[in-house]
Structure formats: structure tokens, C-alpha cells
């Protein structure tokens, strides 16, 4: 095993990049495979000496997950407080930009699909495909699903019900 | 900006927006466990959650404008009915499903048109809040409009109930567009939407659907008014008694 002094010192420097890396572990509490960064919720990281300011934007206005996300961000950063010399973490809810589903990254959409949730359609796309069998023969059961961001669909080919992450733009 | 915004008037208007969303949200929440079937139960409470979220945003904007130390929660849970500024239609009891549906449709059309206009507000925090709320109320409107049509053109009983709901609700709608001298000043400054122009637009859109649904608009009735001045129906007092009970009994309680 070799000891790499250079990377060791670099790691300890408190930079925005390092914070983004730590925050990659913070997932949406309701879709635990997609990070808050890939969801478009994480907008800003600022460092003032030893305190870290994280700016996030809400998805749906009444989304109760925002409280959990705030707590999770603090926990994720404070777990490494000693290593990076972090004194204070402030999580702020920003009023802009206004969140839309266009802010969800391709990586995020792929993770959603693998998890069994049909991701929001891109502009120009027409059919909502079954995340299980890929069929485009699907039907909306209810425009409102288990959470504010999802609608309930059913596949007419494999007959499985599934969630569709609504387009919100 | 050429003219100074009247903060007190804007504060009152933000309370009107917030109080409207909160009372609507609270009424819809009463459907939890009582929806006609599971998916609709979930839909009603989803819409409720969005509306309570809008209330929270507008209360926060009001807090930011104010010099006193009231929080958004204080505004929601510690004001009495005469301090609420919502129009009376939003505090009316939930009634049956036809009544809730038609009431929601009237408010949804209004909210979509209102937030479209407020998205262009010269007061940026209000413009941003309206842009966010707009995406959600558009979705609500799709649902309530489809239900109005579906119920009105279905069984005899559904038709009778829809017509009765229309008779009961129609004369509560003009109050949505009511203004006073302070609001007119904000309208002239481009801070809030031109409610008179919205009234024309709203009537066009709503009457088109009602006609398609073969529903008849009642000719005369008592026209509701008073919310803007804090004068409410008896229903608001009962609603607040239930909604505010916990904070009144256990001040500052959190969970
Ligand atoms: Zn399938």
C-alpha cells in the first residue's frame, strides 16, 4: 500500500467540489435512487471560511420531502466535519430558479426508470412507456399518484401498474 | 421603479392569496378518507397539499414585507377570522362531491388566470411564486374540468346535484375579482393582476364549459362580498377553531 501525500492534502481542503461529492450521497427520500443533484434540487454551494452554505429549491410547493432533504444534507456534511474542518452547515431554500422537471438530469431519469418509475417525457416525446416491459401501450389510471410528483399508470401489455413522474414545466 | 410600492397594501394582498389557498387546502383535506373512491381520495388530498404549499409561500412573502416578528405559522394559526382576507367562496363547507368539484373548478380557472398574470408582476418575489404555483394549478384544472363535464353529462342524479351546486355557488364567484382603493393602486403599478380584466376572461372560459355541460346559470341571488375587509361567513370560524386548535392549546408546539 502506498501513501499518497499529495491527494491526502488535497482532500482535506474545503472546496465546493468536495462538498458536491459528499452531497452526491444525498438522495430524494421518496425516490432513494436519485440524488438531489440529479433531481435539480441542489442549486448552490458556497463556502465562507469553515461554514458551508447549501442552496436548494423545492420541487412541489407542498412537498414534505424538503424537510427531510434539509436534514439529510446537514447530516451528510457534518459526518465529515472533522475531516474538512466544517464548523457550520446552513441549508437555504432559494426562491429561484423555479424548479421544473427539465432540471432532472439524464442520469437521474435513467436511475428513475431502473427503479420502476417512468421518467417525465422530454419535449417532443409522446408515449409513456412501461418501465417493466417497455411497451408504449399504457393507460393513465389516475392523474394523482402516491406523491404530488407522480401519476398512476398501468401497462396494457404486461398489466403491471406503475408510477409516472409527471412533467412539470 | 418609478413609484414606491405600498407595502401595507401588498401585505394585505399576499394574505388574501395565502388565506385563499389555506382555506381551500383545508376544505379539500376534509375529503381524506371520504373520497368517492381511492384514486379520487388521493387526488383531492394531493391538490390540498399543493394549495397548503402555496399558502406557505405567500405567507412567507408577507412575513418578508412586515416589520413585526410574526412567522408564517403565526399568520396561519394565530389570526382570528376577521383578520382573514380570503373571499367567502374558499371557506364554504365541502358539501357533496358535485359541490366540491364545481367550487374547485371555479377556483382552478381563477388561479390559472391569476397566476399567469401575476407571473408578470413587477414585484419579483411575487412573480416567482406565481410561476411556481401556476405549474401546479394548471394540473389541478385539468382534473376539475374533466370532472365537471363528466358529472354534468352523466346520470340524472349527478346532473341534479351539479345544477344545485351551480345555483348555490354562482353568486359567490364575483367576489374573487373584488378590489378596493389600495388594490387598485397596486394594479395600476403592475404589482398585481388587473382583476377586472380577469373577470371578463374567467366568465368567458367558465360559461363556455357550463354551456357545454348543459348547466343553467341562475338569474339572481345574494352576491357574496366582505372577505377583503375581514367580514366572513360563520363557516370560517368553525374551520379555524378546528385548524388552529393545537397551536392555541399548546402555543409553539412543533413536531
Ligand atoms: Zn409492461
TrEMBL record, chain A:
The record's NCBIfam families line, in alphabetical order, gives:
PA_CoA_Oxy4 (TIGR02159)
Name assigned to this protein: Ring-1,2-phenylacetyl-CoA epoxidase subunit PaaD
Q: Which organism is it from?
A: Marinicella litoralis
What single Pfam family name could you report for this chain, choosing any that match? FeS_assembly_P
Question: Per the database record, which ranges form the MIP18 family-like domain?
Answer: 17-79
Q: Which InterPro entries match?
A: Fe-S_Maturation_MIP18, FSCA_dom_sf, MIP18-like, PaaD-like, Zn_ribbon_PaaD
The chain positions of domain PaaD zinc beta ribbon read 123-166
TrEMBL record, chain B:
Its BP terms in the Gene Ontology are: phenylacetate catabolic process
For this protein, the record's Gene3D superfamilies field holds: 1.20.1260.10
Instruction: Please give the PANTHER family that the UniProt record associates with this protein.
Output: 1,2-PHENYLACETYL-COA EPOXIDASE, SUBUNIT C (PTHR30458:SF0), PHENYLACETIC ACID DEGRADATION PROTEIN PAA (PTHR30458)
Q: Which GO terms describe its cellular component?
A: cytosol
**A Pfam family in this protein?**
PaaA_PaaC
Protein name listed in UniProt = Ring-1,2-phenylacetyl-CoA epoxidase subunit PaaC
| Top-rank taxon | Bacteria
Recorded coiled-coil stretches: none
Mark the transmembrane ranges. none
Amino acid at each position: 500500500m502506498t501513501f499518497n501525500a499529495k491527494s491526502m492534502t488535497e482532500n482535506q481542503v474545503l472546496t465546493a467540489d468536495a462538498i458536491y461529492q459528499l452531497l452526491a450521497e444525498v438522495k430524494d427520500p421518496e425516490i432513494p435512487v436519485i440524488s438531489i443533484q440529479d433531481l435539480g434540487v441542489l442549486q448552490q454551494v458556497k463556502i465562507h471560511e469553515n461554514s458551508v452554505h447549501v442552496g436548494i429549491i423545492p420541487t412541489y410547493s407542498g412537498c414534505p420531502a424538503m424537510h427531510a432533504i434539509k436534514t439529510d444534507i446537514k447530516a451528510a456534511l457534518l459526518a465529515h466535519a472533522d475531516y474538512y474542518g466544517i464548523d457550520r452547515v446552513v441549508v437555504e431554500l432559494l426562491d429561484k430558479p423555479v424548479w421544473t422537471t427539465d432540471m432532472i438530469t439524464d442520469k437521474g431519469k435513467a436511475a428513475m426508470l431502473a427503479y420502476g418509475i417512468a421518467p417525465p417525457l422530454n419535449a417532443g416525446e409522446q408515449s409513456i412507456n412501461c418501465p417493466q416491459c417497455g411497451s408504449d401501450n399504457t393507460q393513465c389510471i389516475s392523474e394523482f399518484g402516491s406523491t404530488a410528483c407522480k401519476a398512476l399508470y398501468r401497462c396494457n401489455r404486461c398489466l403491471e401498474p406503475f408510477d409516472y413522474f409527471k412533467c412539470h414545466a | 421603479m418609478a413609484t414606491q410600492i405600498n407595502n401595507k397594501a401588498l401585505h394585505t394582498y399576499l394574505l388574501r392569496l395565502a388565506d385563499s389557498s389555506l382555506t381551500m387546502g383545508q376544505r379539500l383535506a376534509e375529503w381524506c378518507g371520504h373520497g368517492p373512491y381511492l384514486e379520487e381520495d388521493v387526488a383531492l388530498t394531493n391538490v390540498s397539499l399543493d394549495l397548503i404549499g402555496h399558502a406557505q409561500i405567500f405567507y412567507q412573502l408577507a412575513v418578508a414585507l412586515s416589520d413585526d416578528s410574526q412567522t408564517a405559522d403565526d399568520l396561519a394559526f394565530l389570526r382570528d377570522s376577521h383578520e382573514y382576507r380570503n373571499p367567502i367562496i374558499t371557506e364554504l363547507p365541502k358539501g357533496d362531491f358535485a359541490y366540491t368539484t364545481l367550487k374547485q373548478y371555479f377556483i382552478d380557472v381563477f388561479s390559472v388566470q391569476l397566476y399567469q398574470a401575476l407571473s408578470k408582476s413587477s414585484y419579483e418575489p411575487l412573480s416567482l411564486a406565481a410561476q411556481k404555483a401556476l405549474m401546479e394549478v394548471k394540473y389541478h384544472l385539468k382534473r376539475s374540468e374533466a370532472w365537471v363535464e363528466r358529472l354534468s353529462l352523466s346520470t340524472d342524479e349527478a346532473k341534479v346535484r351539479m345544477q344545485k351546486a351551480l345555483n348555490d355557488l354562482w353568486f359567490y364567484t364575483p367576489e374573487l375579482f373584488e378590489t378596493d382603493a389600495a388594490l387598485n393602486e397596486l394594479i395600476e403599478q403592475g404589482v398585481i393582476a388587473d382583476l377586472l380584466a380577469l373577470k371578463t376572461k374567467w366568465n368567458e372560459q367558465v360559461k363556455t364549459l357550463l354551456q357545454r355541460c348543459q348547466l343553467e346559470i341562475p338569474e339572481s341571488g345574494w352576491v357574496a362580498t366582505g372577505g377583503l375587509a375581514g367580514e366572513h361567513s360563520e363557516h370560517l370560524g368553525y374551520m379555524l377553531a378546528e385548524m388552529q386548535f393545537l397551536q392555541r392549546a399548546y402555543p409553539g408546539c412543533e413536531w
